[in-house]
Amino acid sequence: MKFLSKCYIGLIFFLLYIPIAVLIVFSFNESGSLAEFSGFSFMWYKELFHDEEAFSALRNSLVLAVSSAAIATVLGTFGALGLHRMKRRYIKKPIMTLTNIPMMNPDIVTGVSMMLLFVAVATFLGTRELFGFGTLLIAHVTFNLPYVILSVMPRFQQLDKSLSEAAQDLGCTPSEAFFKVELPEIVPGIVSGLMMSFTLSLDDFVISHFVSSPNFQTLPLYVYNQTAHNVKFSMYALSALIVAVILVILLVVNFAGSAADRKGKKGGRV
Amino acid sequence: MKDLSLRRKEPPPATRKGQAQRNIFQKLAAVPHTVWTVMFIAAPMLFVLYFAFTDAEGNFSFANITNLGQYTNVFILSIAFALIATAVCLVIGYPLAYFMSRQSLRAQKVLMVLIMLPMWCNLLIRTYALMALLDNGGLLNSLLGKLGLEPLPIVGSYFGVILGMVYDFLPYMVLPIFTAMTKLDYRYIEASHDLGCNNLQTMTKVVMPLTLSGVVSGVTMVFVPSISTFYISQKLGAGKIDLVGDTIERLFQNVSTYNVGAAMSLVMMILILISLTIMNKFSDEEGGMVP
Amino acid sequence: MEKETLISLRGVSKAFDGETILDNISLDIHDKEFVTLLGPSGCGKTTTLRIIGGFETADSGEVFFDGKEISQVPPYRRLVNTVFQKYALFPHLNVYENVAFGLRLKKTPEEEIKQKVQEMLAMVNLKGFERRRVTTLSGGQQQRVAIARALINHPRVLLLDEPLGALDLKLRKDMQTELKKIQRATGITFIYVTHDQEEALSMSDVVVVMSGGHIQQIGSPVDIYNEPVNAFVADFIGESNIVDGFMLADRKVRFSGHTFECLDEGFAKNEPVDVVIRPEDVDIVPADKGMLNGVVSSVTFKGDYYEIIVDVQGFKWMLETSDYAAPDTTIGLFIEPEAIHVMKKSEFSGQFGDYSSFSDELEHLSDPEEEEEE
To answer: In which domain, by residue range, is C150 found?
Structure first.
């Protein structure tokens, strides 16, 4: 039984990884063929690195991810604080429901709805130049918000009221107590909200697809446009690079985290 | 005499007033967030409603909704594909999550990273990788050819699209179930054995009801993107298979069809809402049997 | 010993959501004393403590500290420190930093902090724990850190809110002794909140018994035990048989159909009273040789004594004695005059002190594990 279950796990993970493995291997294929590996070559990587468009898309993606994650984190953290202190359920509940809509809705509906809003505003203003960084930023902040709230809100809820009282008892003013004692308890939630927003924003294709313009492309939009019609091997190279970067990040986050844990258990001033 | 009642020398601040100011600040903290959600979540939803119920001139009309009749087949196909993909993911993913949770902690950690890696890779990349493998000129068919077998026309078939959905979304099914499994207290399983359940009975009577919450989120996380996808059907359907997502995407490329597109999005949203409500109700009743 | 009043509450009342928690409380706390606020859940003892600590403001009344009115002084400016119910240690700081917290706020030089923290940790037997995370400590250890963190600031008064509530019995006993020792060594006034009467009696110089937002009695543990002012106090502190009676004259009280000699005076002639007799103060004698006769309804072996429930004319008495009496036999009860304590009738009369529905298990079940007052 134990052996069979290991075989099952092995089989599923094999199937899950085989397309990714093939993609990585063939990104080094010198001939432009997916059928046969004829020889090792970096030519597709070279082509990718000479592609100005790819670099500008990468830059756009990073700028968008950093700024939307920052704005969403600030808005969401204060939002979570305010919602947590809010006593009136008939105000709090609708706001929470509204906040969570982008998380529940299929991305395509979120994208389409924001597009319609921007179309209406553009018509109202009589301009055609509305779409671009601004609309992407608004859309990304909007779909990041529920995730920030989701990771910060529980921190506020778990906050022990007596911690702040204990700090005041020991001589902190109420605001000192907040910064010295309560904030350190909330910060991990803020950080995870920020990280989640950043990755969601980097990863998003569907919503961006509806609110972008051809003169502001993000990396996923660039991949989409490049793969729309014919097979491009430089896209294999790009995908392989992205997989590698994600793998490294995941390994660092998971195993550096556990190393820090072990260190923490041994002690050490924090 | 030394004033012993006061610890600090600073003049006494009007603390109650300070407290009140702090409270007001904390209450106002939610205002920017609220304004944002109203402007960019509520308003867009209202625009979907508005476009769905008006014609191109902005007059009130039911025509968009009634015209959706021509897309009945698209809806049926989308729902069927999403249901099949979700069911297959559940059938494959549930035992996988269970077996994963029975491994050593170290192995669990590695498997977690392995299941999350595809989730973090962009959907476009995963789909594109799968297509590269299965395409007519891809590795699979070239290997089959070398063995003297007929090529499998997977890309462009219904099977190909469903396979794409299963491949892309399987991790979303496994992860929440796996999390629920690891939170499951092993003493429940021991108690069930103690009370006379065999392995199968323990599975159906104890493990499954207690991990139902994971199943519900897994099903949601697979069903919703499956029913609304357009990239998977574009790539693995080779543009020959039209799903709701493809149709909406196409309708929004032309200003004149925004209204129909909005109507279609609305109907899809309602369909999803109904299915999720039914599922939650069903799972609540099931869950209610476990004290 | 000269008694200097350190804290006094004058007519303090407090209500939450219209429900009165404290009703016109007045209380003086003397310097260097170990004072315990004792009472059942919801009696207002924690609220009293929080008003002294500055975490709540009284709706009416005044709080004096060393002769100064401090009702509006915020907690961080009071010379009072608190050991919180669930310790409230700062989870992001290690043991050392938790203890050093108060000194750091006062910008104490690092050398002095280091020395004082070491001293404190030594006092609470936590040497070598400086770098440990507080989340990895046991309940007893967290408790000690909380005490060290409060005491390092040299408060005039230490407030302790059910500090031993979360510990198991053995540890509780050890910590009781240790707390008393620390209090004696530091000479700091302790105000201690608990619902455990045994804890209160064994540790305190002064016990304040509270119920329903009122102070029922203030006194030394011996006074409270021997001279309870009403049926509530008599029942809450230890076991008591509380019988209806009336005073025939000074030093003569009649109850259960017999006239007894007693030591109490100053009641009106024929005034109805509550009579308290502690279970251990009743002696068993052969039937008809005692003042009262009763039938033994149950006997429980308790180790160093027997707990015997005796039916005397329908009223069940509890006896604690080293003499065995078989169930269903008739025995005589003998009570010395000094064992009889007469109390004026009060609102609590008739509610306590009858063991007709007594059961050990029930007593334990209804004993609240933890106090939640707010």
So the answer is: 5-226
Does residue B76 sit in the same domain as residue B42?
Answer: no
**Which domain does B86 fall in, by range?**
71-288
Per-residue pLDDT reduced to its tens digit, C282-335: 999 998 888 899 999 999 998 889 999 999 888 899 999 988 888 999 999 999
pLDDT of A260: 53
Instruction: Name the class of domain A52-237.
Output: mainly alpha
Domain segments of chain A as ranges: 1-41, 52-237
Residue from A38, A104, A116 to probe the interface with B (highest B Cβ count within 10 Å): A116
What was the pLDDT predicted at B21?
Answer: 61
Minimal-distance CA residue of chain C relative to A184: C92
User: Chain A: nearest CA to B127, how far in angstroms?
Assistant: 9
Distance from CA of B122 to the nearest CA of A (A): 6
DSSP A1: -
B62 domain-assigned: no
Supply the pLDDT for residue B143.
Answer: 87
> Please, are residues C221 and C207 in contact by the beta-carbon 8 Å criterion?
yes
Token pair of B286, please?
């099931």
ipTM of the complex: 0.85
pLDDT at A267: 39
Q: Are residues C300 and C218 in the same domain?
A: no
* Gap from A82 CA to chain B (nearest CA, Å): 4
A129 vs C129: which has the higher pLDDT: C129
Question: Are C219 and C246 found together in one domain?
Answer: no
The tally of domains found in chain B comes to 2
Q: Mean pLDDT, to the nearest integer, of C340-346?
A: 89
Select from B5, B12, B15 the Cβ nearest to the Cβ of C66. B5
- Which residues lie below 8 Å from residue A79, measured CB to CB, with a gap of 6+? A99, A145, A148, A149, B29, B30, B32, B33, B34
| Residue C349 located in a structural domain | yes
Q: Are C74 and B15 an interchain contact pair (Cβ–Cβ within 8 Å)?
A: yes
> For residue A225, how many C-alpha atoms fall within 13 Å in the half-sphere facing its CB?
16
Rounded to whole angstroms, the Cα distance separating A52 from A42 reads 18
Alpha helices in C204-346 (DSSP H): 221-226, 231-236
Chains that touch B (3 or more CB pairs under 8 A): A, C
Q: What is the mean pLDDT of chain B?
A: 85
Residue B15: its chain C contacts at CB < 8 A? Answer: 72, 74
Residue C17 has pLDDT above 70, yes or no: yes
CATH number of domain containing C208: 3.40.50.300
- B27 to chain C, minimum CA–CA distance in Å? 21
User: C261 lies in a domain?
Assistant: yes
- Contact call for residues C203 and C209 (beta carbons, < 8 A): no
Tens-place pLDDT, residues A211-264: 998 889 999 999 898 887 766 788 888 888 888 888 888 888 777 655 555 544
Residues in C closer than 8 angstroms to A267, CB to CB, are 94, 131-133
- Do B181 and B46 sit in the same domain of this protein? no
